[in-house]
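User: As part of a screening pipeline, I want to sanity-check one entry by hand. Below is the sequence and the SMILES for flavin mononucleotide. Please return the complex as structure tokens so I can compare it with the automated output.
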Amino acid sequence: MFHLAYISKASHPMTRHELVNLLAKAKGKNERNGITGLLLHKNGRFVQVLEGEEDVVRPLFDLIRQDHRHTEVTILIEESIAQRQFFDWSMGFHDLDASDILGLYGNSKPLGKSLDIEGFKENPGACLTLLQFVRDLHLTRTTDQSRPA
Ligand SMILES: Cc1cc2nc3c(=O)[nH]c(=O)nc-3n(C[C@H](O)[C@H](O)[C@H](O)COP(=O)(O)O)c2cc1C
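Assistant: Here is the complex for your manual check:
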């Protein structure tokens, strides 16, 4: 099992409609490909983790990297893992712009500037900490924001 996390910048401000379309297609394809993960969006930035077999994740990432809907795609983490961490999600989604999560995340955690490309490059592990924090909060909440309305 393998995972890859990256940060990128949306090419233009994406509407809810565009995000929903992107996710609907991504989820269907990920399910067929055995890919799981989580996509975060905030203020025109994306952070995504993809997990699955390496020979499936890498070609998918190459495709995603070339997608014109985002630029400055920067890999933060690529490594083997013992087991999936987002096994419930063919692709979870959380829009941090429309969420109170960062308030709960607190300043003490290793993430001063949220979804800041330079900040994450300096501290790549912080992106996994954030992704896992969002996952754990979803698991304890009754509403599922990973499914856009
Ligand atoms: C931020 C972002 C995240 C994406 N995530 C996924 C994903 O998890 N899975 C996926 O299949 N496509 C994802 N895509 C879309 C791919 O870039 C690409 O458009 C899609 O896989 C093309 O599929 P098709 O060639 O089968 O139509 C993402 C695109 C963007 C901009």
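Points to compare against the pipeline: The chain has a mean pLDDT of 87. The helical segments are 16-33, 54-65, 101-105, 117-122, 125-140.
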